[in-house]
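User: I'm putting together a small comparison set for a docking exercise, and I want a reference complex before I start. The sequence is below, and the ligand is magnesium ion. Could you produce the 3D structure with the ligand included, as structure tokens?
Assistant: Of course. I'll restate your input first, then give the structure tokens for the complex.
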Amino acid sequence: MKYSELFAKTVKTDPKDEVSINAKYLMKGGFIDKLMAGSYTLLPLGHRVVSKINSIIREEMNMIGAQEILMPLLHPKDVWNETGRWDSAKEVMYQFEKNEKEYALSFTHEEIVMDLIRKHTTSYKDFPVKMYHFSTKFRNELRAKSGILRGREFMMKDLYSAHVSKEDMMEYYWQVADAYMRAFVRIGFEPVITEASGGVFTSEHTHEFQAVCETGEDTIYLSKDWKFAKNKEVMTDEDHKKPDLRTHKSIEVGNIFPLGTMYSEKMKAFFTDRDGQQKPIWLASYGIGPTRVMGTLVEISHDDRGILWPLSVAPFHVHLVGITNQESGIKTKAKEVYKRFVEAGVEVLFDDREDFAAGQKFADADLIGIPFRLVISSKTGDNVEMKVRNEERAELLSVDAAITKVSQAIKDFDSKALSKLKG
Ligand code: ATP
Ligand code: MG
């Protein structure tokens, strides 16, 4: 992609009314645009990052046998009344009236999934059911000061699984926990699995995936080996007596809920078991917020010049800068190098802008945060100058060697990340 053609270039001034690092860098870098508090557009750069995050999550979901669907976001009141959540979740749900009927904008989908399952299953043979979708969620968030970490409208990948027994449900629940961990690690960070409460979803305990981060809104208690990990909200007096626990600020990037039979009992979703008896369906749900994950990456991985994306979800692998105002031959050379990289399957953002000082181009490259920076200038001859975003030293390489190095890094990313997994 030529930077000259990219919609939404970098912005010099800090955005108004944004205090968070993620909003500042994402807005200044041209990744997102703000429509109003808690409401952002994913611009082409931001959309590329979120799409890559989604692809990794999708691969992990498909690997554990889940099937992708897409559910409506506009819901009738009736279905929410079946579980009582029209009233109990009133605070978080956008509800409104139109043509004398009441509706809600989706803040989650348990009721919609339950309705689907009761319509399309009858016997134990129809289970387990594992379905997920990626879609927008609407929530009446009161604290909208964390940039894209807390949207009032945001992207969620939510998975739902339905089973004939608690054992079945829990077995899959832990499979999903593994898949989530793999997804996060492939995306570029390792969160902690912590015990937490169920909010408006369940009275059972749930598990959150928490990224340790000073700017996070959550507080978790952790032992050194991460074996003990609880959200502050579920700490008991006994827990507080444990030695060597430390508190950390953190960002919740995922949450899994072993819901049980509350939803099926209220919505009369039964199946016929082997013994001919009618029994309630066991439901679990699992959420990850890809837009919050993008914001989290910025919060945990940046310096005073800008973002440092992991290679797996960076908008491009390489940021190619041509210092074109020095010599006419440089422009042609930069174009050739661009073509070579693209042909080799490397994603390149090519800063082909004329009349821009090298310093400005480098500052933009640092702000945008693509892992590899390549420079073609009057000094590089037949070679290219390559620098990794978080290293100071640059090296001169042949075009072939540079392509090999980047391609190898792309190929190795997953296995390297997964091999470092603690658990
Ligand atoms: P929080 O406690 O931070 O408000 P939550 O517990 O209400 O979040 P869940 O219902 O567990 O959120 O949603 C599942 C996932 O969706 C979260 O783990 C998070 O990644 C994402 N998410 C939730 N709320 C938001 C939001 N307002 N903006 C962006 N992502 C969100
Ligand atoms: Mg949660």
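The mean pLDDT is 96. Residues 212 and 408 are 29 Å apart (CA to CA).
User: Thanks, that's exactly what I needed.
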